[in-house]
Amino acid sequence: MAKFIRIDMGTRTAEIGACPEKYAGLAGRGLTSMFIADEVKPTCHPLGKYNKLVFAPGFLTGTSAVNSGRISCGAKSPLTGGIKESNSGGSFSQKMARLDIKALVFEGLPADGKYAVVKVDKDGVTFDEAPAEIVGAGNYDAIKVLQDKYGPKVGVALIGPAGEMKLSAANISFADPEGNIRSAGRGGLGAVMGSKGIKAVIIDDAGASAVPIARPEEFKSAAKRFANALTTHPVTGQGLPKYGTNVLVNILNEAGGLPTENFRRGRNEWANNIGGETMAATIEERGGKTTHGCHAGCVIRCSQHYVDKQGKYITSGFEYETIWALGADAAIDDLDAIAYADREYDEVGIDSIETSVAVAVAMDAGVIPWGDAKAALDLIRQIRQGTPLGRILGCGAAAVGQMYGLTRVPVVKNQAIPAYDPRAVKGVGLTYATTPMGADHTAGYAVATNILRVGGFVDPLGKEGQVELSRNLQIATAAVDSTGMCLFIAFAILDIPDGFNALVDMINARYDLSLTGDDVTALGKTILKAELDFNRRAGFTSAHDRLPEFFEEPCPPHNTVWDFTDEEIDSVLAF
Amino acid sequence: MAKFIRIDMGTRTAEIGACPEKYAGLAGRGLTSMFIADEVKPTCHPLGKYNKLVFAPGFLTGTSAVNSGRISCGAKSPLTGGIKESNSGGSFSQKMARLDIKALVFEGLPADGKYAVVKVDKDGVTFDEAPAEIVGAGNYDAIKVLQDKYGPKVGVALIGPAGEMKLSAANISFADPEGNIRSAGRGGLGAVMGSKGIKAVIIDDAGASAVPIARPEEFKSAAKRFANALTTHPVTGQGLPKYGTNVLVNILNEAGGLPTENFRRGRNEWANNIGGETMAATIEERGGKTTHGCHAGCVIRCSQHYVDKQGKYITSGFEYETIWALGADAAIDDLDAIAYADREYDEVGIDSIETSVAVAVAMDAGVIPWGDAKAALDLIRQIRQGTPLGRILGCGAAAVGQMYGLTRVPVVKNQAIPAYDPRAVKGVGLTYATTPMGADHTAGYAVATNILRVGGFVDPLGKEGQVELSRNLQIATAAVDSTGMCLFIAFAILDIPDGFNALVDMINARYDLSLTGDDVTALGKTILKAELDFNRRAGFTSAHDRLPEFFEEPCPPHNTVWDFTDEEIDSVLAF
């Protein structure tokens, strides 16, 4: 029977119970969001005793379904003040699923202010003091110490120095199968983990049985059809494996939607120097890996090992959004410098999007010069040092904007707007404005249909069709985020109907259900409604669903402006 | 005919028109709040082009009515994100009134990023570049430079370095009749002034006629009765003139409501060292002034000249709330050190309450040691230097709390809670929670009835009667803030009915009206409703009307907790 584990960090005790009936039909984001909406006081301080942190694998996690190893983390966000689900790769989720743990809930605050390592295995939950050498240390070293102590194959969730300092953009880091780093990046959930005195959570699935499948033959057949959809779709079968997500730099630059110099324009002259094609060629020339999965069973393999000139590993999971933010938004025309910054973000445990956008805002404020790679790296390293400037940066773009008195601060609900200009990719602009998560491209990735022509085509520069596009993608995403699947499967299932059917079939076969596509839509709506309701009780209104006023300025080269009316924006999630 | 002046800082042009009909019956806070609610886009960036800054004298300003010289400043607040009225003494308001200017409105943003001095006199409005020596300079020197240039008697409103840096707690400073400094302190309106490129506004009333009085004999008689009430009431006639507002330190300490060490307890052992009695004795011994008015015509004279051991002026307007915040909340047992800090706040132009509470939060975070006067002064001086830490401090208590990951952050709507613990003076706690201004004791000073037994008595430690008390005081205050009167007149008019009647009679005689006490109440309600409606449109809900959760902890010595239900809190302004 699926376990539901509540851990009180005040008493360092665990209560291992059966999953409550109301959460039995939920997983991933569906479970984390319904739980937070049920149990967390919406007006609470995100770092205080009333907040809770919950981890949940998806419906299909732990099975042989490809790309199903994502872990959902949920809490009230210290960055946005609203509900937050942030998910990540790594091996944590699959091990949780194999231990048949539906959710791990962390409550309370530590009595002594010390950091614990919480270990979960088939025998239960144990608490150790965090080894002194990992407190304040970078995440790469900390993972080594933890895997030396607890076993080389254990799943690890941990916070770095940013989470220890409870900075608003601190992430939760996860070890991937090679001991490198994956992140639940957005919304500062690492600060919540830090506030609860949790340095790391170890999942050891030794002795666990395989995940049970109710109708195994049906599952096997559906899993094959599903994998086939992923490997044959041009985005998931070719573009992402070959160039990683960074394939988008040149595409967005061409589309005029690559925000440059703190969102002053949507195209620049140096984009190809930092683009996916250049990156892949560089990695190949240096003997790194151009393709690599963040969790076992991934067939998209959009990760890579980015290496230095001597072929030495610098970073992996080197994403388009990070490269955009430093490479275009902060005008740093140097992939190596950006790779070292990405490494530092992983070491300190901080959101690479939020922090990089904050670097660009700091440049706009004159803190450091535009495009100065060395100054940017020095600035980013101040986070780990805990200097006042490092703390400002580590609290995100809005904090930099406030401390330096700027109005050109690209945030919604206090969270940085990512890599697609909302004036040139208007569908994703509606997602930024309305998602309960704060500005987040992954919450309803209209870039797919606006730019990549996946799932049809809606003109990125026009308003027509965008409300429905953002709405439908947000609903679908809330459901996909509940499956444990990587969101990139959406490219394939939007275009290949049998891919979507196979996904539903796998869930049905796993749990002996008979869900239809309509049930998936209904689930997505239920999740969004719960999230919106939490935010309403936390004090959010439609006034918070607005982009910053500087998006009224035309964005070159198309010179389009953000021109949705309040009524149009408010209709996106009115269902 | 009363003038209504709109000044566009983008074009540096002024439009001098008649006061619009809808504002003709308003003045002071009534005018500023109705205007902001009418004309400012509630979701705008406070430092952006859609915000407006308005100055307005009160109904009785410029007349011979005692204590009627306050100036109201209004805008959307950079600190709270809500509507803000902040008022001050000085000679600005009386000169505006004598020029028959109902309101001065500043709109737009400077085209060139330069600072202007805007001069207003009987001939109109002129614009000069700010003298280079005052940009970045302290306010005392800047006022000297400006009065040398524009005349020794002109009214001056100006911003210091904090306003130039657009820090969220920057105030607007006003020259008093001696060229010393008074402040519209709360809510960061100095940052709005800075964003509009206004270094100073000069009011020269040379050649202006006396303020017209419709029924002069009636006015004269009422003014006499009114002055009589102020001079005979024990608070306004004795306590405040003798000890200043700092008379409250020992009173609140005795009452167990003097927040000490970041609101950990309500009483301490050193209070008398920083109290009003000690302060008055020190000033007398050193040859300073124990009593002094902030504007011409003040009979309460609660200000003073605090001097050093050599008798040299350090500061004036040295208020209880500032002395409490550094002296008890930050545990600095040294009046001289607090006086130097107060001087620095005036020089840099920043809210002494917000910043001092922020100092205590920084001590709680371990940035500097508790009670370390030298470290605190060094920290405060970093604001002027523009260091990252200085900017964090200058953005207030909430910013310090966020950057250092604390939950013990005494703010409501992002504004610091002042000098009265809401667990031991529960009526004012309801005011903190519900006023549209963010935590503000002056918005409904229930301390009067809870502690000073003015206007009756309501037990400070109980809940009974507090909802009505806070409501009635908030309504009355909104009206009083429209008269140009110093709020301290409330002590007298709450206890002496003829004082209140005389106030209404003066307004009637001035404008040839026949208002009653009910009209005054109706005005107060109208103002509050407009302010609440602005905040609602800006995104505020009842979720923002909550005190921080740490007030659930018992507050020694009475060990009472903050125990109002949400429903009770929400009933305060439900009229």
UniProtKB/TrEMBL annotation, chains A, B:
Pfam family, one: AFOR_C
InterPro entries linked: Ald_Fedxn_OxRdtase_dom2, Ald_Fedxn_OxRdtase_dom3, Ald_Fedxn_OxRdtase_N, Ald_Fedxn_OxRdtase_N_sf, OxRdtase_Ald_Fedxn_C, Tungsten_al_ferr_oxy-like_C, W-dependent_AOR
Cofactor(s) needed: tungstopterin; [4Fe-4S] cluster
Domain Aldehyde ferredoxin oxidoreductase N-terminal span(s) in chain numbering: 1-207
Domain of life: Bacteria
Keywords: 4Fe-4S, Iron, Iron-sulfur, Metal-binding, Oxidoreductase
Keyword Protease appears in the UniProt entry: no
Keyword Cell inner membrane on entry: no
Family stated for the protein in its record: Belongs to the AOR/FOR family.
PANTHER family linked: ALDEHYDE FERREDOXIN OXIDOREDUCTASE (PTHR30038), TUNGSTEN-CONTAINING ALDEHYDE FERREDOXIN OXIDOREDUCTASE (PTHR30038:SF0)
Protein name, per record: Aldehyde ferredoxin oxidoreductase
